[in-house]
Each structure stands twice: as C-alpha cells, then as structure tokens.
Amino acid sequence: EKKKPLMLMGTAAAELARLDAAAAVDNRIAGFDEEDKRLRRRRRNHVSRPLTSLGGANGSGNGAGGASSASDGPPSLAAHPYSFSNYRALPYPEFVKPPVSAALRLLHKLAADPGILGIMAKHRWRVPLLAEMPPEGKVGVSESCVLGYNVNAGAEIHLRLRTDDLKGFRRYARIRETLVHELTHNVWGDHDINFKRLCSQLNVECQEFDWKRTGNGAQRLGTAAVDDDSDGDESWSEDDTTMAATRASSGQALGGGGGGG
What we know:
Layout: H1 13-23, H2 32-45, E1 58-60, E2 84-88, H3 100-112, H4 114-122, E3 127-133, E4 148-151, E5 156-160, H5 172-184, H6 193-214, H7 224-227, H8 240-249
Parallel strand pairs: 2-3, 3-5
Antiparallel strand pairs: 1-2, 4-5
C-alpha cells in the first residue's frame, strides 16, 4: 500500500510569545501614550464655538452687579472672581431627557460647589468656559472613553455629563472628580508625578472646603444634592459596576499632555 505524505505545521516560539504578550494587554482602557496622542488630535481639531451659537443652551456668570440664584444659577463673579465666566450645554433635541436646561443647571451647580469654589480661589484660577462634551465610548468598556478635557491649560474645560445611553446624568461626585482632574491640567499637562501629586492635593482640598462651608462633607454631593437639580423625569442610571469601571480607568481615560484632558 502506498504511504501518504504527512505535512506538519507549527508556530515559531517568538510568534507565540508575541501573541501571549498581546493577550495580556487590556485593550478596553487606553494607556497614557495612546490617550495623549488622541487628546492631541482632539485639540488640533477643536474649534471653540461662540457662546451665542446655541441660544438657550448657554449661560454666563453674573457680572459685578449680578446676583446668583442659590438653587440653579452660577456663582456671582462679584463674590467669587476666581471661577468660570461662561457655561455651555450641548444642544440636544427636545426628546432627549434630561433636557438641555438641566445640563446647564448641572454646570452651574458644579461651578458653585463649595469645594470647587474653594480650590479655584486658593489657586487663583479663572476659567473662561465650562462646557458639556458629548459621551465618547462606554465608560470602562470602550477603547476610547474620555470623561473630560482641558483646552490650552485652562481656557476651556469640557465635561462628560450624560450616561452612555443618554437617559440620565453621571453621578455628581464622579463628575466633580473629573472637574478636579481637569483643573489640575491648568498647571501640569502630562500625567507625571507632579500632576498626580497636585491632583491628589486638590481632591483633599476640595473635600475640606466642602466640609467647612456646608457642614455635610463630600458624601452629600453624590446623593440629595444631585436630586435637587432634577426635573423629576431625569434618570440617574450609572450603576455600581459602571462606577467601579470609571474609577479603575481614572488617570488613564482622562488623558492629556500639553493642555490635558
């Protein structure tokens, strides 16, 4: 009987090692280098829109003679010169809930937060614009997931306010953490040891200022304080799993050399 030839195939050891190394990388979260590249591309393409272009989606800080509403208005620039001058929410269609007006009130609340006011006054920071940015990717899942970015070391700060499904806002305490992160980029662009030290310091100061002025501490900011700003039909749908993923990606997904994100 005639014997049939056999063909043996194999994979080189070097190729197997390369595949093993690739499998060990969690591609759901971008590394610092990749995130910095992505944010540099975003800054190159960023065009600041005039504040009059969005009609009711915009708001400005009160002038020297203005009075701020304790419930939903921005802080008075007369009383708080170190703050944000203008505010801009994204112009979503009317069927999207929470509405644009609720997003604008949330930006005002962040600016009027005792912890944020305290650290901005202490470090003498004035930021011309605090704005909403569109959700990019799913928190803790997508390769590209940005929670905020800082334009030109404090010229503008943009924050992701809404959940992935656009059915609610992210938890207030998490958005405030992102804002503190972006304020750190007023001083340091890269996520180096200097950035990490200042960001940690600002988080401590933010909680201390909030405790001193409200007597309730930072824990209050993630609960009743948010509900006070709702229109009743808003959904606060970020669950504990999503929040754990957000915290795990902190410092990587926010990114930002040279102006930062």
